[in-house]
């Protein structure tokens, strides 16, 4: 039988006080009082530790729906579809205390349209530390999985990384960038973790979030956006049903895509294929103004619309004659502003 914590503390206090002979009543009272105080301190120590050290607890992980809504409205431009889908999907998932499977989002579109940025916004409104949280994990295909000859090893490593991190915190987030450059077959290794299992080897993955980022499917998104423009229809009229099937089929049948004939699509484990539309001139101007506003908050000059327009005009647009959409979206805005300011 183990001695009670209070008894051990009392003995420790008595030894520290050097009480070796008869114990005076007043000494005993002081010792007992100190032992009680130390017991209370140790009981609260864990909570103090949690306060200063990021842990898998509500103090560090909690969904801010209003914050995500405001960020999507004020910081993401030209993406009415992505904004609506992301807000509903993340809000619904985070408000469910007992989801049946992890949330799986696949974000598609050309470069510079906001895919990485949206991932960042989600992380910032779920984790107190945002993208710096130790529970947010980013995998980049060309960095983490560069060699086709090591595919078998990558599969094993990926499984272990995910299992280990979810074992540490069930509210983990995994972001896979450059899915269009990932070796086909690799992502299928994590299929069991995305499925409707209550637990696998004692670990539940149901409260985790998986986000895939890819340029694949961008061509079909651009074609749809161009069709609407040529017909004189507003881009806001584009609905998810106009794009979701074509995007999923496009990436599923793309031999160079990490989603090529993947069981994740075949078994309907991707909850939403989120299309990011190509950006127009006005959206580029908004991006430039937003970046200047952010810089102004750090001591630089106020936003200048003339500079924003100059930056937007300097970019390349397509189709060549009509110049409707920015080839690189808002990706080069920061460097362009460095030049013009």
What percent of residues are in strands? 5-15%
Largest sheet: 5 strands, parallel
Distance between the termini: 74 Å
Mean pLDDT: 89
Number of domain units: 2
Which key phrases capture this entry?
disordered N terminus; 5-stranded parallel β-sheet; alpha/beta; 7 strands; globular; Rossmann fold
Brief digest:
With 341 residues, the protein is an alpha/beta fold.
Q: Could you explain the architecture of this structure?
A:
α1 (5-17) packs across α2, α12 packs across α13 and α13 (305-313) crosses α14 (333-340). The chain has 341 residues and is α/β, with parallel strands linked by helices. The chain folds into two domains: 65-276, 3-Layer(aba) Sandwich (Rossmann fold); 281-338, no CATH class. The longest helix is centred in the first third of the chain and has 28 residues, at 25-52. It contains 14 helices and seven strands. The chain has helices at 5-17, 25-52, 65-75, 80-94, 115-124, 141-144, 151-168, 191-194, 218-230, 244-252, 263-266, 281-296, 305-313, 333-340; strands spanning 103-108, 136-140, 173-177, 209-214, 272-275, 317-318, 325-326. The model is unreliable at 1-23 (pLDDT under 50). β6 (317-318) and β7 form a beta hairpin. It has a five-stranded parallel sheet with strand order 2-3-4-1-5. Belongs to the ClpA/ClpB family. Torsin subfamily. Its main location: endoplasmic reticulum. One of its GO terms (molecular function) is ATP hydrolysis activity. It comes from Oryzias latipes. InterPro entries: ClpA/B (IPR001270), P-loop_NTPase (IPR027417), TOR1A_C (IPR049337), Torsin (IPR010448), Torsin_1/2 (IPR017378).
């Amino acid at each position: 039988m183990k001695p009670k914590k209070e008894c051990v503390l009392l003995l420790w206090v008595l030894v520290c006080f050097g009480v070796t002979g008869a114990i005076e009543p007043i000494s005993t009272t002081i010792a007992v009082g100190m032992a009680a105080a130390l017991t209370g301190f140790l009981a609260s120590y864990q909570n103090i530790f949690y306060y200063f050290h990021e842990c898998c607890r509500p103090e560090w992980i909690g969904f801010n729906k209003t914050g995500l809504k405001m960020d999507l409205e004020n910081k993401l431009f030209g993406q009415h579809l992505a904004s609506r889908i992301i807000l509903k999907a993340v809000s619904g998932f985070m408000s469910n205390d007992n989801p049946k499977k992890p949330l799986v989002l696949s974000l598609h579109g050309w470069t510079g349209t906001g895919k990485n940025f949206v991932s960042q916004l989600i992380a910032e409104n779920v984790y107190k530390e945002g993208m710096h949280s130790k529970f947010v994990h980013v995998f980049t295909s060309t960095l983490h999985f560069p060699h086709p000859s090591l595919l078998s090893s990558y599969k094993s490593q990926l499984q272990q990384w995910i299992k280990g991190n979810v074992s540490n915190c069930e509210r983990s987030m995994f972001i896979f960038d450059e899915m269009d450059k990932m070796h086909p077959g690799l992502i299928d290794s994590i299929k069991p973790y995305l499925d409707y299992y209550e637990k696998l080897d004692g670990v539940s993955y149901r409260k985790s979030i998986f986000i895939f980022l890819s340029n694949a499917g961008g061509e079909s998104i651009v074609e749809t956006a161009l069709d609407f423009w040529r017909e004189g229809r507003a881009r806001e009229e584009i609905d998810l049903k106009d794009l979701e099937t074509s995007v999923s089929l496009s990436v599923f049948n793309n031999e160079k895509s990490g989603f090529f004939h993947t069981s994740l699509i075949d078994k309907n484990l991707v909850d939403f294929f989120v299309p990011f539309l190509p950006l127009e001139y006005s959206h580029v101007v908004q991006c430039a103004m937003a970046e200047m506003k952010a810089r102004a908050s750090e001591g630089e000059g106020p936003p200048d619309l003339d500079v924003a327009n100059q930056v937007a005009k300097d970019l390349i647009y397509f189709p060549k004659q009509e110049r409707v959409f920015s080839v690189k979206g808002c990706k080069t805005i920061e460097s362009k502003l460095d030049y013009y300011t």
